Amino acid sequence: MTSLNISLPEVLKAYVEGQVATGDWGTPSEYIRELIRQDKERRMTNLEQELLAAAKGPKIEVSISQIRKKGLISALRERARRA
Question: What does the DSSP 8-state code read for residue 63?
Fold first, then answer.
């Protein structure tokens, strides 16, 4: 495992320490890792929902050159905004 140092305002530091004090996490690092995992899961769920909605929605055509230039997700989002 590697480390990453972050700076927090005193209010947030106290909040994290309070969460750790509940006993649900052993260290502030464990608490932060859990928050990151939850955020990652939430984002993946949102992406999955967006993809399912798009699959059920109107057909969107994107050229291969647009995908190569901007990436698939960016090209799809741009095309959807214009539709």
Answer: -
What are the tens digits of pLDDT across the range 15-44? 999 999 999 999 999 999 999 999 999 999
- pTM of the predicted model, to two decimals? 0.65
The answer to whether 76 and 62 are in contact (CB under 8 A) is yes
Residues 38-47: contacts with CB within 8 Å, 24+ apart? none
Q: CA torsion angle for 60, 63, 66, 71 (degrees, to 10)? A: 70
**Where in the chain are the domains?**
10-82
- As a whole number of angstroms, the distance between CA 83 and CA 81 comes to 6
Q: What are phi and psi of 57, to 5 degrees?
A: -85, -170
Supply the pLDDT for residue 73: 84
Residue count (the chain): 83
